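Quick one: structure for this chain?
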Amino acid sequence: MKKIFSEMQRPVQILLVLGILVFINIISAYFYSNIDLTEEKRFRLTSPTKKMLHKVPDVIYARVLLEGDFPAGFKRLQNSTKELLNQFRSENAYISFGFENPNEGSIEEINKTREELKKGGLLPINLMIKSGTENKEQLIYPYAVFNYGERRIAVNLLENIPGYDQETNLNNSISQLEYKFANAIQKLLSNEKKNVVFVDGHGELSDEQTMSIQSVLNPFYNFGRINLDSAGFIRKEIDGIIIARPQTPFSEKDKFKLDQYLMNGGKILWLVDGMAMSLDSMNNTAEFIPQPLDVNLSDILYKYGVRIEPNLVLDLECSKIPQVIGQQGGKPQIELFPWYYFPLVSPRSDHPIVRNLDRIMFEFPSSIDTIRTANAIQKTALLESSEYSRYQLSPMRVGFDILRYKPDPSKFDKKHLPLAYLLEGVFSSNYENRVEESMLSGMKAIGQEFKSQSSPTKMIIASDGDLIKNLYDKETGKFAPLGYNKYEKTSYVGNKDFISNAIEYLTNDENIMAARTKQIKLRLLDKVKIEEDKLFWQSLNIGLPLLVLILLGIINFLYRKRKYASFNSQTNP
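Got it. Here's what it folds into:
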């Protein structure tokens, strides 16, 4: 009877276990969780991202165009994108997403999809896929399009920095996913644009010369211009100020207005040349003697903690300019030569403003030195020259003769010269204990009080005003992308990304950019060691499971033999 009851229980137990497994599977489809045991906490969202996600009030749908059969590297990008969006959804159920394959369907459907994506500015990349002994090309769209009501923002999932191999670029792409997605969602949620103004009145770059960066950031910022001479003061509603390559001196009144704007928590991006030098200066001469550019900002920058040196930085890592090397068939023969005064800077810092940025093109930059200040100002070197750089002190001669000779690397011995700094903290006023009565009465007339100490704020100083300058054709009204070198016919996108990130960091207090510091380490296997120990590991991988199975079989056999031997001895005394 007992045996019959035991046999009846067995199917019930099996059904119960199956039911529990099905229930767990259903629940897991709606709830996402993980335990992050990685060293760099790659599966943990940053606190600013979590806070931002908790504020999402309605459905945001991410349409990911990365469905399909890809090589291992792109498969990892696909899986990482899915995992991250699951994490976002676990923080807020209003985040939803779907994966699509733009290459699926009939030829007419595929062409229609591609045309729609092209209109939206989403262009494919050509991926080479190995299939057995054959190579085939496939167009893929590494994008995620975030939709919130009538608003939409497309995010490029792929980081492609020249000089990096595919594995490193894919790894960097995965590292930046959280920031890109969080940044897109934050911009979709923002009801008001930030106000950023360019300073006018001192020979700064014109509106046309800064149109490239404005066109990129116009969806998220209101841009304007302010002439400090005619403005009574700088309004608190202005979130950030850009001083772009001034050529004439600032008056004390103008500097005082900038100083008090900063004291009230304002943010400033200073793009100021150290020397009065441009390539146009050498149009009619093979040699030029540049002078230090005095725009009367040295004292105010010194007070805040930096000094732009009167020198020019030369770097073996540089862009190129054309030179005539002879005549051929009555026409000048032209070649491109490295122009050491135009450094190409690869960011070394892990700060979120510059981490994983492409190279940034400078034109005649100067080095920046830091100064001890009364208040503890945090100073971060954002951009530096390469290991093979040096500087020329004023007075100096700048000429094309330098291109005649092969450079001696031993003379480029001043490595990592700072070219851009981020300053953060509580600043002391440049006019502390020396403010004029006329300035005080002017402030009183507009209902403001003089402040000698700022509230916590930040600024960025770079020693090249051309970082934000785009080429502009007056005849056609067209402008080139920021960072475009007309001689090499190459765009250095690092310029656009650096300026964009700098403006965002200065004007955004939610610190979403913290996610840009995420780093996923490549733990590559030792290929030499793999080849040496290949036979051992293959044997171990094949043989060990078989040995374990044989061992378990022997143990099971001995156990059953002993069990039934004991049972027989009890039933047959």
